[in-house]
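How a chain folds remains the central question behind the approach discussed here. The record that follows shows the chain in one-letter code together with its fold in token form:
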Amino acid sequence: MSDSCNGSGISGNTSGRNLGGIREVEAMLVGVDLVSAARRNIEFLRIVADTRWLHEKARVVEAIRRYNELWMPLVSDLTVVGSTPPLVLPPLDVEWVWFCHTLNPVSYRQYCELKFSKLIGKPAIFNEGNEEYALMRCKEIWSRKYPSEPFENETDLDVRIPAVTDEELLAEVTKHRFLYSKFSEAYRSEIVYLIAARHRYKGFLHMVQRFSDECSRFVPASDILLMWLTHQSYPTLYAEDLKEMEGDMGKVVTVWESVKEKEVKETKMLWETAFDQPYEKAGGEIALKSEITASVKSPVHWEVSDTDVNTKYKSMLPRFLLEVCLFVKLNLATQQNVKWEFLRLRMLRGHKELKLDKSISNFHYDSWQKSWNLCCEFGTKGVVLEIFRQGGHCFKGSSLQGTVTFHWNELLRAPSQTLEREVSQQVRIVASITPPVQAPYLLKCVPDRVTDDSGAMISDLILRMNRYRPQEGRWLSKTVLDHARRECFVVRMRVGGGFWRRGGETPSPVKWEDRIIEIREGSWSYVAGSIGRAPEKVIATATPKEPPEQWKAAWNFSTGDELMIGWESSTSISSLCFYLGNQASPESSVKLLKGRKMHYQVKNIKSESKDEEIQNQNEEDEDGEEDEEEEGFVTIVRFTEENPTGKATALLNWKLLVAELLAEEDAALALLLCLSILISVSKMKKEDLGCLLTRRRLKEAKLGARDWGSVTLHPSSYSSSISSPHLQPWYWNAKAVLMGTDGADLITRQPALNYSPVEGSDDLYKRGILK
């Protein structure tokens, strides 16, 4: 065993050791390229999950018939024992049945030997061009062999479901319907992640073989499970690679089995015995349901997106997230009394208020303990671990005993994205991360100064620079900040016309149909202090219009969308309803659902199956009930051919003017929706609901306000001592995150705002917005 894996690694405050080289593991050969195969399988599972018709019982039953009666005899005729599998691939429905069948290696082998007297393998095709060739070749052979059988599954769903002839295989296919949900995180397809997973899978095989007689059942971590299922999906290679371990692999827990806490502990202990490493890692957690607890969902929605429509906005920079796991173990040689010592975690950059403390006396000498599980933005740079010694009863304060730092870039260069470091020769710490992947954008609007028709802020300074030419028009303005507090856009709402002259005319409110909203791309051009001009490029506008009879407010967007807003009572926001349509793109329908829906549902953050989520969602939609916590939230759900049941692409809070949106959702549309809804409802209630009339940049809340979303604590790491809303997704407690820890309105905690007469009176803005 190499030094990088045993207890003789380099130690010290700044050094670390790579947990990548295990000679016994590297000597274990696997006949399939698991990295390429896993990437292909993840994409295949994504297609299967998105292909809704594939899960209808009539289609599944027909697919099984086609698999048994057509595909397997065809591929058997082409298969020569001892040769590589033929370069052919079946249609999607048959391939899905084939894939599910191979995940039960014993049953699949018996099936093949009984019917064909040989084990039938799958070709290792990872190139898109080769895959297309294999599919076309299969179609030609299929047409010649079965001229009366269509290549595609053409089952008529209006016809009675055909009789089930293979109950066992139907059960196999049915139970794997939601398999993609186990591996849907975007980082799972990253090459560096899969290389590390392959390495750990080999280590897992080594452990199973070595300790088979000492353990009743082995529980695979999620990255190992992905590699195991991938290996199984190539049955001839799997059988050849593990022919000496066939009985041992029967002790490995399969994907949908519940496990016992004892089995999880035994697996972790044996891994530590074999490699002196923690068994779990970032992206390699125990994802199987135990007898006591269910697996806990990540609070981050790791969405896989093929396109980013917001790259057209140069002022928007993508946001990248990674998962971090930190394990701690006390050194056996430690003789000191650790009663007064504690370990502190903080970020290398950003979220300076973040300090997570744990007493060292809580850690163990004999095993690795998961101490923190976080989702962090890549811009945080890394984590810092510090050991402090408290002063005790007679001393005040704490003294720093040692520090180690883990940089994200350094961890990414480690083959397994895992490093170990030692602090003050007392504590060993292992940090692991997942590759950073693009995450949803976070945008929030903050009040700013009033501007004129040209976009310049209303001020005496601008008047002097313009040689006292009056500034025409009055627009309420908001600055749009991203997750890193960068200025992305300037949003302006027209309120007044005319101009102000000392001793002369004053601005007057404009008509409702002239109260347009515009979004300008970029940041302010400051000429002195906080006084400046808005960027020139207008990327989107919203214009109010006369609503149809059944609606109360209506807006036309320059994006081609049309928004309708209705309400039953002017005293209740809960009666709001929305319609959003686009005549230019009728094939892509969209709904605005009140509240936090689908994966934004707070009460469904804990683990539950996908079908349970859908059922709960449908029940909520039918009830139409909304509690106070949902007020202000709107979920954008898009319906396409790929997602006929809908996909949530953004969550808005129009009262707080905040948006979280996937890369495929347009930021300009999200901002227009927030502002137009807020203005309409404020006018309806004749009340300033979202600081619309505030005409100064306010001092933001101290804790977490400058880096909201930068660090999210995984629910498995929650404790009663950690209650900060800034370590949770912002929409769990939006007011506390965006308006202060107590949820109080920022305006109530700001000094009195003295507006200049040149901006216009309060009455101008009240009449221009609220009346």
Notes: The radius of gyration is 30 Å.
